[in-house]
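Assemble and predict.
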Amino acid sequence: MYDDKELERIRAGKENWEKTTLGKALSKFPERKPIFTSISGMPVERLYTPLDTADLDYEKDLGYPGQYPFTRGVQPTMYRGRFWTMRQYAGFGNARESNARYRYLLEQGQTGLSVAFDLPTQAGYDSDHPLSMGEVGKVGVAIDSLDDMKILFDGIPLDQVTTSMTINAPATVLLAMYLAIAEEQGVPFDKVGGTVQNDILKEIICRGQYIFPPKPSMRLTVDLIDYCFKHVPRWNTISISGYHIREAGSTAAQEMAFTIADGIAYVQACVDRGLAVDSFAPRLSFFFNAFTNVLEEVAKFRAGRRVWARIMKERFGAKDPRSMMMRYHVQTGGVTLTAQQPLNNIVRVALQAYAAALGGCQSLHTNSYDEALCLPTQEAVTVALRTQQIVAEESGATDTIDPLAGSYFVEAMTDKIEAEIEEYIRKIDAMGGTLTAIEQGYIQKEIQDSAYRFQKEIESGERVYVGINKYTMEEPEPTNLLKVDMKVGEIEAEKLKKLRAERDQAQWKAALDRLREVSQSDENVMPAVIEAVKARATIGEICDVWRDVFGEYRPKEFV
Amino acid sequence: MTQDRKIKIIVAKPGLDGHDRGAKLLARIFAEAGMEVVYTGLRQTPEMIVETALQEDADVVGLSSLSGVHMYFFPRVVELLREKGLDDVLVVGGGIIPKDDIPELKKAGVAEIFGPGTPTAEIVEFIKKNVRTRD
Amino acid sequence: MRDYAKEVLEGSPRAAARLISWLEDEDPRALEHMERLHAHTGRAYVVGITGSPGAGKSTLTDKFTFALRKQGLTVGIVAVDPSSPFTGGAVLGDRVRMSRLAVDPGVFIRSMATRGFLGGLAKATGEVVKVLDAFGKDVIVIETVGVGQDEVDIIRLADTTCLVLVPGLGDTIQSMKAGVMEIADVFVINKADRPGADQLYAEVTSRVEQDAHIRERAWTPPVVKTVAVDDEGIDDLVEAIRSHRRFLEESGALEERRRRRAREETLQMIHGELFRRIRDRLTADGELEALVEAIAERRESPYRAVQDVLARWLRE
């Protein structure tokens, strides 16, 4: 961005500064430590100047918002047009209680729903399955059948909200239920909008909610993408997630790199199915974490957008700019929250939300400060929502687009993270692709090594964590914690018994037989799944058909 | 030449919770502390965990739970251990566990609960100090 | 004191587990029990599963065991993983793949760390196999990493050794060190749905055929393709092992192998016991230190010293 003569002048000036002003200061006041690093362990220099961004080609590397390579954002006006979608992940207990919370959040000004499911639902087990013991309604809402789903969305018109569902292995089943409700409400499929996470690879890498082996899992993923492209055009068919990779201990650059590697695998699978890249790619979206180191996060988001755009254009030959846009949801970092001095978490979340805004997210969930202690209370959820409202309305971060662009440091960091992402992609390609890298445990091992390094830094005191290894204090026992009623499991089991007795047995059996037949063929499973949920087949029964046809997955664990 | 007696510890994730960052990290830390760590992986029922402890002649069972099911799983593991005559096996737990639950868990026979942010050295120390002497 | 030998014979997993711990710790209390169990061993058939890390051995062991269970056979599994040479600790992760076997009363799984013992096994692995044998398991599977010629101890314990190879892991014939190919009674090409599987299969098959030409061998190792995660080819593996067993039994080679094993074991036990006794004596009265001192100062040579010590000890 500077000509050579200008750069020469700056280099001379910097050397002079180092010898004179800086030299004097350092001899009197040495710096706090010999090496500074970001929370991801990336070295951070004392001072950044135009010398660090000398290779930057503005038009090629940064460009303009809404234009390739989208470094500066995916929309032309960004938050000057409208804020990101404020979407709080919520859901607990049974469908009735969750419905009440959704209505409350909608009244409070939230603009989209986000559904958390309990672990049995995520793992494709009914509430009365032995492995569901103690888990029903714990980390989200328990959904066994279409009847539960109907209660969950009772009084919520599906053409007026968008709904994000955190569901992966059985994503087809939950989407089928959602569509069945839309049908009942008289809402045509092309008016239905929302997202399913549908990202099985990161479940296998680090989150653990897998059911079937990778190959049939990928088939279900592609079936859903294919079906929505044809029938539910406003649906975001997958949310390729780095969030959990980061939670599992990765660095910022690894989070972006491995998520993009997963993305490449999905796009390739769709292309292999015969879908044209520009037909489905515009509906792909991403999901990332935001930690407290604001500048590193912003660089990560910018680098990710640039790398993804180039991959879609160069590797997959996308022509539609929308196929090249990395659109993403952000959730603030769950693992950054401390059980010690929990109110400090409000500040962490605020900085993280600020990072997400400066980084150009499309939607945001802010965590509640009490999440390291228990499931969030209503009060904490409200503070969390208010936090992002303050960032949006008061901080000024939303008034101009990509405000940190041109910062010597942020641009240098963006380049560095980009280089690291590209290096990982090269390595994974050389191994034979993402699935192989996962199978061999390469990705898992890289993440675990980073987690281990971080833990060691905390324990040695090398890295300060407020309230954990510095500024600690005696605290009173926390009060006002939310607990889930242990009874939920029994109630759900009772409901299931009734459902199984009362549904039309012939219709139910025919629907499951049909599902089995389709699953054994190459046909898209979605229509058969929709029929099955309408026939009141439960999620466990549907997944059992697939467990039988596809087998079950046991991961290789790398410790 | 007799071998040094090694502490054998089972690190298990009961239930459906898939958050194993802590469990894996600790497995590694325990191994570094010279222990022999049997890692069971995810989705363990109390029966599976106790059968593993039995066959492996484990000295310690470490349970990790972040999904709020500790009040069901932890006491159940202790109970089953006792049923099998493994009453000298040290049971410790960790994860997201509200402080009010700890007294009840201890009463049920869980030796100690380590919350988020506990220095791992403290956990290793506790185990070394409280592990059974095997006859 | 509890009568562990009796309890093992009566089928107590707790007793078997504890006895195994003693064996691992080289606790002398184990001896008396092992002595009494000896008459009850020799009934189980021992299968070794070895190969590179990442070859899918645990999954294969899981599926193989499951197949045996369906035939009504009981199974003991000894899964060996290396100890860290620096800390002495170990992470034993093989059970992860065998979760569904955990509560099957017909299966007993024991994870073992090598504890510095070279050769791919732990020192006590052979003894542990005997405990599981006396415990009544029909088949005992030893699962361990074996990549180099130094890690082929498994053939000394196993009646049938399966070498697991995988395409794309650098498992090519050229990369195989001398000796590794020879240990296999059955070759398994796992992850056979991967690119390169057919090539690896062809390579191994042709190598096996070449060997058969060069040297007269009564047994030509079959090459079995599996995709263990998808449960494919497991029946073929079971059949291959069964036919090897039939061959060993009919040709008398099983008897011969076991005799050879008994011989090696006896010699090894004599070696160990003699060494222990001599060392105990030498260290008890400070003689060893004096000898070391003399050798270090070149007043004495270790060659002479050994002869002296042995001569004296044998006279006594």
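The radius of gyration of chain C is 22 Å.
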